[in-house]
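User: Please predict the structure of the protein below. I'd like the answer in structure-token form so I can feed it into my own downstream comparison script.

Assistant: Understood. Taking the following sequence of 289 residues as input:
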Amino acid sequence: MILPNTVIIGAPKSGTSSLFFWLNAHPEVCGSRVKETFYFHDRVHPRFNKNANFIKHGLSKYPDFWSHYAQEKIILEATAQYIFLNNPLVELSKFPSPPKIIILLREQSSRIYSLFKFNKYRLGQVEKNVSFETYIGERNNNVLEANPLAQSNYLEVIKRWDEKFGKENILVYQFEKMQKDKVSFMKQVALDLAIDESFYNNFDFFKRNETRSMKNHKLHRLGLKIQPYVPQWLQEKIFVPFYLAINSSKAPAITADEKEYLQRLKNEFKSSNKQLAAIYPQIDLELWK
């Protein structure tokens, strides 16, 4: 049974899409047919995993995502929501050879704001008159999967995965390092996965999942359904640029009130981030100031 030996589990809006596609381009990596399989989601979701999920099918349909496997060293999946869920935590740890777990983190206030803008302007899931602060307040008592503040306590979130997989099998990176120097970042990831890092010396990096304001959300949902069937090279060179040109515009700039609230959020996580950096010294807190 073909099962992934490397899984990117999150966090959402921290560059997981880019990391998946950049790794998937490597000749020693076989990525899943779709970036986010949602296979181990805690529930059956009509949009994401209705036809293939662990709840209904066990592991039987999971290998189908790698039907194109050709003996590559790394078998890769990336579902960013896994980091907050229980089912993937339990089931991935039961694999005969548990996979390496990749966690990509972003400074909390920036991640939460990016999530807000993505849901509001790209997906159209937030009413136009709802402010950033209201958005956070409405979700503050929800379960972990839907609570941006609880999600951003990275120390507690990662601790669950450490206990199941062991620290030696957890690879933690920072979104800000990726943004600062893509080549050095990806070469380090390649070294950590024991694949040829020189592949990224002259790599053509393509930005994925950028937050844009969609003109027609019905058309966007249709595009999301079609996307998995379009070859990656065609998406990057033609499909995505053309689609964004006709159905999107730049998202509104941040307001003064949003900046002030972001600073308050940032201060809330300083103490727990110091503890996190003590456990994972590769985290540079200077990048989160």
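That's the full token string. The beta strands are 6-10, 29-31, 74-78, 100-105, 170-174, 212-214, 248-250.
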